[in-house]
Amino acid sequence: MAGSDKYFDVIVAGGHVLDPGAGIEGDYDLGITDGRITAVAAALTRGPTTRIIDARDHIVTPGLVDLHTHVYWGATYWGIEADPVAARSGVTTWIDVGSAGAYSFPGFRRYVIEHSRARIYALLNLSSIGLIAPTWEFANIDYCDADLAAKIVDANRDIILGIKARIDGKTTRGVGIRPLEIARALADRVELPLMVHIGNGPPTIEEVARLLRPGDILTHCFTGGDMRIVTADGRAQAEIKALHDRGLILDIGHGAGSFSYETAERLLAQGIMPDVISSDIHQLSIQGPMFDLPTTLSKFLNLGMSLRDVIERATARPARAVRRPELGTLRLGSQADLALFRLEEGEYAFHDVEMRRRSGTRRLVNTLTLVAGEPLAKTPERPLHVWAVLPEHQRPILERGKEGGSTIHSNADL
Ligand SMILES: [Zn+2]
Fold this sequence. Notes:
7-stranded parallel sheet; binds zinc ion; 25% strand; hydrolase; 10 helices; metal-binding; Urease, subunit C, domain 1
């Protein structure tokens, strides 16, 4: 036991500890001192002032790392507030992908990141206006200012971990593949990973594949849109598969429009698993059928992936994707970011974005979340914005209550 001259501040006692990335699995106590993990072992000694968190009948994992989120509340179309959702979902590290561009990043840092208990990092949008509006951020090519973006990256390398470009028919309207060429050059110049979003083209998935490199992140990888990475005869798209074999990271980014059971089932059947499972949580997807990251992870459990494979894809692997291996781990000395889950068994229904239904028998339910050894208080979530109205075909999810995920209020009646 480390820190033997001092009692633990906190012991998370009696849980089933699971950190696939660090190779830790077993029924252990977890000792926390000064906000860091200082012991993972059976039956740790309790001091007179040690706070005990009872984790019996729970799975204890590293705090989840969500590789695709939108948490720039109040200044963007999509952003939600991270902290209230962190406290009920186990997500302690939020990678906001592209909500902020060069002009809006200083505000993101000052007004959101500095005030959040959850850890927030960012991929900077190539478009200098970021995601203030729902679409068209590249339609004015003047906003693709790589020199300006590089300056913002260099001034904020503690927080900016990559470059983001949404590439589909709505974002690039009229300018073709040019924004991705600029994003490619920018990512190479600042030596950070590039995350590319796909959906419905133009451009085509082939045009996008030409500009991707190993170490880049393809998000919405199981989309059912016409840029999907499954061919008409059900096989993996050849260029993407070759890139994936060489280290391209396939990231789920479920969202409100980007997760198809059909695509998922076809790729999983060929042994192609996503490298990272992320939520793409935002003003719309939080209403369902995505709901939150534990619900998204539960979908993959019920598609046949193991608990270990699923947890690794929401902890160590996303941390590695953004080159922050010190996050999403229970290794001794790490920040004590933890999540407690019950793995519930029953009859549950889950839906993809087209509201195709699958039944399942297991779901992960978060009960407690700690950042740097301190539990996050459960606080109310802000009302959704007036524009956050689900598309018509998804509205039935609002009546279905707790089928697969949690329910929150929505604006569907507006
Ligand atoms: Zn997104």
